[in-house]
UniProtKB/TrEMBL annotation:
Protein name: Pyrophosphate--fructose 6-phosphate 1-phosphotransferase subunit alpha
Cofactor dependence: Mg(2+)
Purpose of the protein: Regulatory subunit of pyrophosphate--fructose 6-phosphate 1-phosphotransferase.
Protein's cellular compartments: Cytoplasm
GO CC annotation terms, alphabetical: cytoplasm
Gene coding for it: PFP-ALPHA
Domain Phosphofructokinase: 87-448
Keywords from the UniProt entry: Allosteric enzyme, Cytoplasm, Glycolysis, Kinase, Magnesium, Metal-binding, Transferase
Family under the similarity heading: Belongs to the phosphofructokinase type A (PFKA) family. PPi-dependent PFK group II subfamily. Clade 'Long' sub-subfamily.
Keyword Metal-binding: yes
Regulation: Allosterically activated by fructose 2,6-bisphosphate.
């Protein structure tokens, strides 16, 4: 355990010191010591066919209402009320992401505003510190040099799970030992899935600690009807977009290299997608497209080569290709190979013997791959038993196979341009410790304060959420959404006969291939490929024009789910007002006919077919 966690650190002048002075902006409802909680209707699962399974797995926390937070009707009277001190613990559970420290800062400030005698314990070393009850009391002095700073070095992090019986029991013992009123878990889909289970278990064991999740993930894949984006996504995309745009300018300057750039994004391609919209590389391959269309490795290679050849016909022998790190698992035959290797790992088969124990087709594919990829595929698994995708050089694999195919086309006379040359990059860890953008600073700080209000309201198994993020801060809607409403079970097969299987979880949200942002990308695909329509966003701006820029995907999509719920409530209220006993038979018949049509449509929509979606072509 690092003994320096929580120690004051020297801010190396300039930007770091100026950022420490930035005071995050807050929506009006969070500007006082208390809020008023407005309780909505009971929630259901994001997948209605899984609702009965979730109700059985989470008898105490499934179906809880959505809760909105608004300013008290009488702010002065509310501020004067006596409030008991609250004891809260906070833990970094997910991968480090810019803005995480501001969640802790917002939580601390809200606690002290609620009652100055309240105490905030930070668990040193992440979840392992939670299990071992290793704490650091968070104070103003401790926070001073971590405000608006990147990384998770205030407390550190370790394994990203609170899942096994031993882990859950240890966490519960710590909560009881510290007499915690609340536990705030900061992380992504895995951490918040574990938070939901922990909340249920604590209730079943009569432990008073309330569990709150906070959506912090650089991958941006914790997106659903309640969560518009995650803390850290904006910063990571801005940093990576600058790097990609720098590479684009380098490529066009030299005019002789193709840059293959791999970005973060394991289960979903949100970072690569956003960076493409910000920097306009020539080609982008999304894992969602590949998985949906079941493109093989060689089909992907041929599409890239077709793009290279089309550019060569215009006299262009340079370009930039962007891919997510999870692409390799989206390719059907590569996914199957990785699954076989994972099984061998789980069976403790020595690495040296794995290739000989693969099935015949998997062994043939394995031998076809370059030696460096074979070596990387056999690396030991991550803590969640998945492949180490960050260590698999997919961009180098693609570059190698594209070069081989271009040589083949040259020999066959199908390609008459210059020799293909490539340069490969993986922009992965460079952005995780970045100084967070204004948006991430504001968003994280607000989520921290909401977390306290969730605990103070006696709620457990909830996630702190903010809606209307595309608008200015004073228009943001603050709420608490039940974690179980975001959960579902994976389906064994596609189509109407699909069977939900596995453990209920919050699953990574893929890119919406029917969404407005994807439509925009498809419209510009041809221009991106052939016109060198590169865009240079530059570094993150903290002051002046551009300092409040938000992710393009966030601003394009209309995601005010809570606002839409309010519109529906208003419509239903109007119907109740107009259709009362005594209304005319014509009005009653019209209402019945309309409502039957609505229920028929909603019944069909609640059991959707997995229709084929269009593929983003490079043409």
């Amino acid at each position: 355990m690092n003994a320096d966690f929580g120690a004051p650190k020297e801010l190396a002048g300039g930007l770091q010191q100026r950022r420490a002075l930035y005071q995050p902006r807050l929506p009006p409802c969070l500007q006082g010591p208390t809020v008023r909680a407005e309780y909505g209707d009971a929630t259901t699962s994001i997948d209605s066919s899984c609702a009965h399974v979730l109700a059985q797995a989470f008898p105490n926390t499934f179906g809880q209402p959505l809760v909105s937070f608004v300013a008290p009707a009488d702010a002065a009277a509310a501020a004067a009320e006596e409030r008991p001190p609250i004891r809260v613990g906070v833990v970094f559970s997910g991968r480090q992401s810019p803005g995480g420290h501001n969640v802790v800062w917002g939580l601390h400030d809200a606690l002290k505003a609620y009652n100055p005698q309240s105490v905030l314990h930070g668990f040193v070393g992440g979840t392992e510190g939670l299990f071992a009850n290793k704490t650091l009391e968070i104070t103003d002095d401790v926070l001073a040099s971590y405000k608006n700073q990147g990384g998770f070095d205030l407390l550190g992090r370790s394994i990203d799970q609170i899942r096994t019986t031993k882990q859950v029991s240890s966490a519960m013992a710590t909560c009881r030992s510290l007499n915690l009123d609340g536990l705030v878990i900061i992380g992504g889909v895995t951490s918040n899935s574990d938070a939901a289970q922990l909340a249920e278990t604590l209730i079943q064991n009569n432990c008073k600690t309330k569990v709150v999740g906070v959506p912090v993930s650089l991958n941006g894949d914790l997106k659903n009807q309640f969560v518009e984006t995650t803390v850290g996504f904006d910063t990571v995309c801005k940093v990576n977009s600058q790097l990609v745009s720098n590479v684009c300018l380098d490529a066009i300057s030299a005019g002789k290299y193709y840059y293959f750039v791999r970005l973060m994004g394991r289960k979903a391609s949100h970072v690569a997608f956003e960076c493409a919209l910000q920097s306009h590389p020539n080609m982008l391959i999304l894992g969602e497209e590949v998985a949906l269309s079941k493109l093989t490795l060689m089909e992907i290679i041929n599409k890239i080569c077709d793009g290279v050849q089309a550019r060569a016909e215009l006299g262009k022998y340079h370009g930039v290709l962007v891919i997510p790190e999870g692409l390799i698992e989206s390719i059907p035959e590569m996914y199957a190979l990785i699954q076989e290797i994972n099984i061998l790992h789980n069976n403790n088969v020595p690495v040296a013997e794995m290739s000989s124990q693969l099935s015949p087709w998997a062994a043939a594919l394995f031998q076809f791959l370059p030696s460096f990829i074979r070596r990387e595929l056999l690396l030991h698994q991550e803590s969640d038993n998945s492949a180490q995708l960050s260590q698999i050089d997919t961009e180098q694999l693609l570059a190698h196979l594209v070069e081989t195919e271009m040589i083949k086309r040259t020999k066959e006379g199908r390609y008459k341009g210059r020799k293909f040359s490539s340069v490969c990059h993986f922009f992965g860890y460079q952005a995780r410790g970045s100084i967070p953008s204004n948006f991430d600073c504001d968003y994280a700080y607000a989520l921290g304060r909401i977390s306290l209000h969730i605990i103070a309201a006696g709620l457990t198994g909830y996630m702190a959420t903010v809606a209307n993020l595309k608008d200015p801060v004073d228009k943001w809607r603050c709420a608490a959404a039940p974690l179980t409403a975001m959960m579902s079970l994976k389906r064994h097969l596609r189509g109407p006969g699909a069977i939900p299987i596995g453990k209920p979880s919050i699953h990574p949200s893929p890119i919406d291939l029917k969404g407005k942002a994807y439509e925009l990308l498809r419209e510009k695909a041809s221009s991106f490929l052939l016109d060198d329509f590169y865009r240079t966003p530059g570094g993150i701006q903290f002051e002046g024009p551009g300092s409040d820029a938000k992710p393009i995907t966030l601003t394009i999509e209309n995601q005010d789910y809570v606002g839409d719920i309010e519109i529906l409530k208003e419509c239903l209220s109007k119907v109740r007002t107009m259709v009362k006993p005594g209304c005319s038979r014509e009005i009653l018949k019209a209402a019945i006919s309309s409502m039957l049509s609505v229920t028929d449509v909603l019944t069909v929509m609640s059991h959707p077919l997995n229709a084929e979606l269009p593929l983003y072509h490079f043409k």
